[in-house]
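Q: Give me the 3D complex with copper (II) ion.
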Amino acid sequence: MNRPFFLPENASKSQLKDAENARKNRLEIVKALSWGQVSRRELIKWGLFTSAGLLAPIGGLNPFVSSSHADSGTIGIPTGAPPSPGLNGLAFTQPMPRFDVLPRIPVSALSPAPQAQSNQTMQLVDPALGGGYGPIEGRPPGPIWAHQRFNQFPPQVAVEAFQGCASTNTSYKPNVSSSLNCGIDPSQSIPLKFHPSLPTQGPNAVWTFNGCIPPKLVQARYGEPVLFRHHNQLPADVIQNGGFGRHTISTHEHNGHHGAENDGFTGAYFFPGQFYDYHWPIVLGGHFSINPAATDPYASTPDGNGGLIKVPGDWHETMSTHWFHDHMFSFTSQNVYKGNAAMFNIYSGLDRGNESINDGINLRLPSGTTNDWGNLDYDVNLMLSDKAWDQNGQMYFDIFNFDGFIGDVMTVNLAYRPFFEVERRKYRFRILNASVSRFFKYGLSDGSTMIQIANDGNLLPHPVSQTVSDEQGIAERYDWVIDFSRYNIGDKVWLVNVCEHQDGKKPAKDRTVADALAGKSPDPCVGKMLEFRIVRNPAKADQSQVPNTLIPNPDLSRIPVTRQRVFEFGSGASQSSTNPDTSFVGPWGVRTDGGQMLNADFGRVSAAPQFGTREVWTLVNGGGGWDHPIHIHFEEGQVLARNGSASNVPAWEQGRKDVYRLKPGGSVTITMQFRDWGGMYMEHCHNTVHEDNAMLVRWEINGAGAPFLNPLPTPIPTPQGVTFIPPDEIAPTAF
Ligand SMILES: [Cu+2]
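A: Here is the predicted complex, encoded as structure tokens.
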């Protein structure tokens, strides 16, 4: 496809009018789909979708548009859409806000108190949700969905947030001084705008944590179990969604090493008016089998007073940069795009967020010195995401192209192309790709090196210096150290995206930094993303380091490989299930161990590794025309080979990972252990449009002990309570 996915600014008036009319027509179908008035199956049956999942190229007739609109142009794919308006002259005129840190509160402040099993106290249910009575907590009831080992890991800290409609932030807590936040005064209220000169987003255009921006950050440390209480305050009426987004949510702590009841299972979603208690014990992998007496000082956590508390588990499994986001079945892309995405920094003895403590364990990465742990002064979370908006400047999403959704507006921390003031010293940037379908690849405008220290949640065995990053797929996190001491005060340098898209299938082309800066790409998100302004010398000398050894990989060589499995990710999938509650149809699917290429059904068990074993999984891209960033929940994997060869694995993928870009026509072979926790987990494409349509499989850990049945019953949530059904299907090679 060579046509641009967004029409250029100089498109003819009639082109723009046709495109806008087509967008309006399509919006009617988007609404009907998002409200559940019509199913995708019906749209295919009516010929509105082709078998490939694209909107059929038919003009005029649209069952959702009244006859008065029948002359409003043709529906053509690919039409492109008009460019998002109002951006001229706004690049690098607003400061980039640091993340808004969610307060850590005493567990005793939660009312009602958290409990091991779901709290099934009844309350009135909104008539828009069917009325009657339903439980206050949306977590499925009973022992299987009880927090595993809740008494062994009682929560020590609580974080409470709600999912809500766009509103103004009046309690911004960046947890850094204003001078390290571009001078932003946190006492000033922050309206929900992508730039001060752009329109305020309507309540149902954006749905975020606590209904506001900047995006939220949670900070926690190993050995300190967190209870994250998530309230759903979205509109009870499913129609009140601004045209996209679903008011049911399930919150995935990506890539938490937690029990499945806390993993945000795609079928364990909860409704407006309910909360869900997520118990994040924050333990090292191997907690129950390696270093059980907690004697190894490398397996440790800050004690709050300059010292360490040793914890059980394998210190080689220490994790750092996570994020959490919605995982609602078949609505993840819309909900994450709409604002359901936050970051989560985990601190440890090794990576404690204090650069001055010199105890032989602390890696002393750029962070700060004020607090014992978790200093954010020079440790900066960055969330990259592309957005689009309609002619009124309200956020816009088009679910019709099942190849993926690509926006034309580049945002960093939900701010349109901002600037960020830095001191002449080293900084750590934890960069999350929070897009729906867009990959990034970036470097500094002057060609200077950046040092990659982490990939996904994990510090690398060794840092890697690069002038341009690898492609960073959706949901991947890359942590970098950039040393600004080489610049002079008054200098500017830009973070430049060079990864060009023409559609949501895969990157079309990687430009050079020079070409991206010269504006040679038609993709409006290629070029400068973020401007660094070097503004002063640090008041205190930079004490941070980037050691040559960070975190070596866990040694799995003595653990036998119990099973090998092959998952092929491709298009042209079919649906074997007829269960409308658990299954979905779309072009995308997964073929397990040579079986059929199947659409997602969260009632189908596709793999069931034995608790305590190690397996080797090969993830295969079934086609050359697209890429898939595949995410496997719960366990960190080590990449053994790309396209069958270990020599194809670049240095920055030689640590642990949780998202694996397959590359067009490629394959990735990984190894993982299954331990510590049980229950049902998932594996899926993190191009969330692919995931939703319907490239996702459920796997579960077999034999994790009571109360785990194998296979597990499937939860079926309703506002009046969650029921369970037996699995729809067990793949022949699952057990
Ligand atoms: Cu994909």
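A quick observation: Residues 628, 685, 687, 690, 695 surround copper (II) ion (CB under 6 Å).
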